[in-house]
Amino acid sequence: MRHRIEAKIKRIEYYLELLESYRDDCKERFRSDPMFEGALLHYLYLVSDGAVSLVEMLLKKLKIGRAQSYYEAIDTLGERGIIPREFAYDFAKISSFRNFLAHDYEKIELKRFFGLLKIL
């Protein structure tokens, strides 16, 4: 399990590096280049999905059990003192962002989307 957790962390770090390289002129490219838009959304999804998968892996490794939702899984880590409660509360928002990217990405409003990115 430890190997799988470490591998997941490395993949998330890789995706974050890719996203960091997109930072310059991101809004302009997102509006004008459909391939860039797809790549950006894909890597954001992979990071957010990887994060919630990592949380579930930790719950399993620590024998805490399965949560009813991604949000609850993150919250559980905070309640148990595994991660700071305040961080867990803020970080749990990534579960909503992951669901948004998985199910509602075609309804993206640019202003709201880039606003969400600032809080994550």
In short:
By secondary structure, the protein is mainly α.
State the main characteristics:
120 residues, Four Helix Bundle (Hemerythrin (Met), subunit A), 78% helix, elongated, single chain, mainly alpha
Describe the structure.
It is a single chain. With 120 residues, this protein is mainly alpha-helical. It has a single domain, classed as Four Helix Bundle (Hemerythrin (Met), subunit A), CATH 1.20.120.580. Helices cover 78% and strands 0% of the residues. The protein has seven helices and no strands. The longest helix is centred in the middle third of the chain and has 28 residues. It starts with a helix and ends with a helix. The mean pLDDT is 86. Belongs to the HepT RNase toxin family. GO terms for molecular function: hydrolase activity; RNA nuclease activity. This is DUF86 domain-containing protein. Keywords: Hydrolase, Nuclease, Toxin-antitoxin system. InterPro entries: HepT-like, HepT-like_sf, Type_VII_TA_RNase.
Largest sheet: none
* Element pattern in H and E: HHHHHHH
> What's the total helix number?
7
Q: Beta fraction of the residues?
A: under 5%
Please name the CATH topology: Four Helix Bundle (Hemerythrin (Met), subunit A)
